[in-house]
Write a structure and sequence with these properties.
alpha/beta, Leucine-rich repeat, LRR (right-handed beta-alpha superhelix), six-stranded parallel sheet, 5 helices, 6 strands, about 5% strand, repeat, chaperone
């Protein structure tokens, strides 16, 4: 049931690694970097293998074995091997699903028009040494995973647009604010009513005091009126 197997820095014996055999039927990723591999002749049949790392070995040819035993390869890393000419790479034409090929630090990269020649020879590939024909960098597998996560986020967003939730939240906030406002209004009304009652009582006191003052002023007026009258009567006498 193993789908990924990393054997980097193990030592191969007679072109094979002990224990690696046809029983790994579910294997999709295999890495054998720096294992002193000289040939692929003893590579087991791995029909589901999609990515194969063979960097920093001493492979110089025999790449036709890959199409026979790993027909579904999409990524192949042969950087740091002894590959010198286009004839060796031509054997990869039968890998119809191959999209990315790495030949870093191989002598073949010193050839004139190396990139153009490889893209012409292997028309099924999209990326050579990490870049396409337009010099656009190949996406990392981690970036692919991130994009997948973003797609998941988009699906969540599609299921429930954030705007709707925001509106609902706004309505809830408005309702809570309104409730607080109503409470404040009730408190304010009762407070005002108390103030009005007190004001009315104060007004009554003020009116009563005013009546007394008016009565006092009336008495004074009467006295003033009487005084001239009294003076007149005295003069008449």
């Amino acid at each position: 049931q193993v789908t990924e197997l990393v054997l980097d820095n193990c030592r191969s014996s007679n072109g094979e690694i002990e224990g690696l055999n046809d029983s790994f039927k579910e294997l999709q990723f295999l890495s054998m970097a720096n294992v002193e591999l000289t040939s692929l002749a003893k590579l087991p049949t791995l029909s589901k293998l999609r990515k194969l790392e063979l960097s920093d070995n001493v492979i110089s040819g025999g790449l036709e074995v890959l199409a026979e035993r790993c027909p579904n390869l999409t990524y192949l890393n042969l950087s740091g091997n002894k590959i010198k000419d286009l004839g060796t790479v031509e054997a990869l034409q039968n890998l119809k699903n191959l999209k990315s090929l790495d030949l870093f630090n191989c002598e073949i990269t010193n050839l004139e028009d190396y990139r153009d020649s490889i893209f012409e020879l292997l028309q099924q590939i999209t990326y050579l040494d990490g870049f396409d024909q337009e010099d656009n960098e190949a996406p990392d597998s981690e970036d692919d995973d991130d994009e997948g996560d973003e797609d998941d986020d988009d699906d969540v967003n599609e299921a429930g647009p954030p705007g709707e939730y925001e509106e609902e939240d706004d309505e809830d906030d408005g309702a809570s604010d309104l409730g607080e406002g109503e409470e404040e209004e009730e408190v304010g009304l009762s407070y005002l009513m108390k103030e009005e009652i007190q004001d009315e009582e104060d007004d009554d006191d003020y009116v009563e005091g005013g009546d007394e003052e008016e009565e006092a002023e009336g008495v004074r007026g009467e006295k003033r009126k009487r005084e001239p009258e009294d003076e007149g009567e005295e003069e008449e006498d």
